[in-house]
Specification:
Elements (H helix, E strand, L loop, with lengths): L2 H23 L1 H27 L23 H34 L3 H44 L3 H19 L1 H12 L5 H25 L1 H13 E2 L2 E2 L1 E2 L6 E2 L1
Antiparallel strand pairs: 1-2, 3-4
């Protein structure tokens, strides 16, 4: 490692230690801002999901949902946790990129000249653009994916999109808030120009997000199907006898 890189590394570690010490004196003030923004993003995404679900054509293939179409088991948690871990990793990477762009690159550029300095200055700018692109990409892809799933579930279970959104709130709010916690920290730090705090923010937000995602996945697998079943049964209940509507034939069967 060159002397310049060692200086940048040691400076970044010192900033991170100083940030932890400062936050230890007022942890709730910091967490409150992150949580408020991440919950706001989560609610916005749910609204976007509701809107997109109304635009997309539902899939007529019979749904496969553990707990609803078959018994749930612990293995059903793995696909959810894997998918969410990828999203969390993407958001955490964006947060680290913000730290590199706003805190490390300017220090490295000070010790360089000519083309090397230009590369380090521009690399920081491109890193910030990368974070913005990641944020938009994540929001758009999740809105499309969740909207399509919502359209299909709403159609096949014969419940409204609004009812479907209500049914997912117990697990979707903590799940989405945890996933967007690193981006919330990035947005707040970038607005304040506190780029040197983003490495510490990444560590804390990921540490908080991981157990939250496990709890949310457990609720999704073991609780949410029962909520869906109760909502769907309400629509299919005729004279005290339970009927089920085939999404393909639109005929009721006992």
């Amino acid at each position: 490692m060159s002397a310049v890189n060692e200086h940048v590394f040691s400076h970044g570690m010192q900033d991170t230690r100083d940030t932890f010490e400062a936050w230890n004196e007022r942890p709730w003030v910091v967490l409150r801002a992150w949580l408020a923004l991440s919950v706001a993003i989560a609610l916005s995404l749910l609204v976007a999901t509701w809107f997109v679900a109304g635009l997309l054509t539902p899939d007529l293939t019979s749904i496969h949902l553990p707990g609803l179409t078959e018994p749930s088991d612990p293995g059903d948690l793995l696909p959810i946790l894997w998918r969410n871990s990828l999203v969390l990793a993407l958001h955490a990477t964006a947060c680290v990129a913000g730290f590199i762009a706003g805190a490390s690159m300017p220090i490295a550029a000070e010790h360089r000249t000519g083309f090397s300095r230009w590369v380090h200055v521009k690399a920081g700018e491109f890193a910030i653009l990368f974070v913005c692109a990641v944020t938009l990409f994540s929001l758009c892809t999740q809105a499309l994916y969740l909207g399509f799933q919502g359209s299909t579930l709403s159609y096949q279970l014969r419940i409204s999109r609004f009812e479907l959104i209500l049914s997912v709130l117990p697990h979707a709010i903590p799940e989405l808030a945890a996933l967007f916690l690193p981006l919330a920290a990035w947005l707040i730090a970038s607005r304040r120009g506190e780029w040197n705090q983003l490495l510490a923010a990444t560590m804390i937000t990921v540490a908080l997000a991981v157990p939250t995602l496990v709890v949310a996945a457990t609720i999704e697998v073991y609780v949410w199907p029962h909520i869906l079943k109760s909502m769907s049964s309400y629509h299919y209940s005729l004279g005290g006898v339970q009927y089920h509507l085939s999404p393909l034939t639109h005929r009721f069967t006992r």
